[in-house]
From TrEMBL:
Residues 11-323 form the Enoyl reductase (ER) domain. The lineage of its organism: Bacteria, Pseudomonadati, Pseudomonadota, Gammaproteobacteria, Chromatiales. The keyword Oxidoreductase applies. One of its GO terms (molecular function) is quinone reductase (NADPH) activity. One of its GO terms (cellular component) is cytosol. This is NADPH:quinone reductase. Keywords: NADP, Oxidoreductase. PANTHER family: QUINONE OXIDOREDUCTASE PIG3-RELATED, QUINONE OXIDOREDUCTASE-RELATED. It catalyses: 2 a quinone + NADPH + H(+) = 2 a 1,4-benzosemiquinone + NADP(+). Belongs to the zinc-containing alcohol dehydrogenase family. Quinone oxidoreductase subfamily. It comes from Granulosicoccus antarcticus IMCC3135.
Length: 324
């Protein structure tokens, strides 16, 4: 018998209940994994609340974790008992002490990268890899605007952009967050609550605009993000924290030959070869120091509700992980 957080009804954090579950031997092509650390993301909050109805109820939430292989199913090669692995998945199931995992999702963890760092940041780091290499290939000399530059993804995005030689401009909500963004590779910060970011970008770039905008905010920033792009610029909308974006008249893009993308990470991870290649590049960035994961805050799995409350209150002080 093992344990898992099971959601039986959508709602507040109190719907996250620890229950016993039973796992047998792994089926062909799968692994039995004992989790060592489990990532907590805002996506999990949306799933729990019912905003995203992508987890069938009753169900086990959670998109990323690290662990140790306990047993290997038939027709699996390249793995053995005791191997450290990590994974991300759009099929959920990570909020558990143990699970069955398709072997195709398992990524071997290299030495020198801790379970805690990877479990709390793999989804973010894979998102950044997608944004900077797959959706838009960033080159040295580009100027890039990052909204929410002090957030979980925003910080890592600034780190990678700076390492690629881009000039990074970030919007933030306070002077404290401006300092965080600057410490993570974003030399130009805009306090969007006190100044229109469009005007600030124009001043910073001497009216030239930016090559790329990474916008996870959505409704409040989308129109302005289009406005600050230079000719043939690219707007990447990968979130909607302020609400969904209104329908866009395609002719709007013609004025400057602009392009717009709306990527979903798990669509880019469907190809197992690309999935493993992106993970390898992410692990290299953790090992080399290009990606700095910051502080991890451990919380017992049984207290998953506390983790969600902390995340929603924005008082976590670092990346949250559940420890079985």
């Amino acid at each position: 018998m093992t344990e898992a957080i099971i959601i039986r009804d959508y709602g507040g954090s109190d719907v996250l209940k620890l229950e016993p579950i039973e796992l047998g031997a792994p089926e062909p092509g799968s692994l039995r994994v004992r989790h060592t650390a489990i990532g907590v993301n805002y996506h999990d909050v949306y799933v729990r609340s019912g905003l995203y109805k992508t987890l069938g109820l009753p169900g086990i939430p959670g998109c990323e974790a690290t662990g140790v292989i306990e047993s290997v199913g038939a027709d699996v090669s390249g793995f053995q008992m005791g191997d450290r692995i990590a994974y991300v998945t759009g099929s959920y199931g990570a909020y558990a002490s143990h699970r069955m995992l398709p072997a195709s999702l398992a990524m071997p963890l290299p030495d020198g990268v801790t379970d805690e760092v990877v479990a709390s940041n793999l989804l973010r780091a894979m998102t950044v890899e997608m944004l900077t290499d797959q959706v838009c290939q960033i080159e040295a000399g580009m100027t890039v605007l990052v909204h929410a530059a002090a957030g979980g993804v925003g910080k890592m995005l600034c780190q990678v952009l700076a390492s690629l030689g881009a000039t990074v401009i970030g919007t933030v909500g306070s002077s404290e967050k401006a300092q965080i963004a600057q410490e993570n590779g974003c030399p130009h910060t805009i306090l969007y609550r006190t100044v229109a970011f469009q005007d600030a970008v124009s001043d910073i770039t001497s009216g030239a605009g930016v090559d790329v905008v990474y916008d996870s905010v959505g409704a409040d920033t989308f129109a302005g993000s289009l406005e600050v792009l230079k000719m043939c610029g690219h707007l990447v909308n990968f979130g909607q924290s302020s609400g969904p974006v209104a329908p866009l008249a395609i002719a709007t893009l013609a004025a400057k030959s602009l392009t717009v993308s709306r990527p979903i990470l798990f669509h880019y991870l469907r190809d197992p070869v690309q999935y493993q290649a992106m993970a390898a590049r992410v692990f290299d960035k953790f090992q080399s120091g290009v990606l700095n994961a910051g502080i991890q805050t451990p919380i017992p799995l049984k207290d998953a509700a506390k983790a969600h409350d902390t995340l929603e209150s924005m008082t976590g002080g670092g990346s949250l992980i559940l420890i079985p």
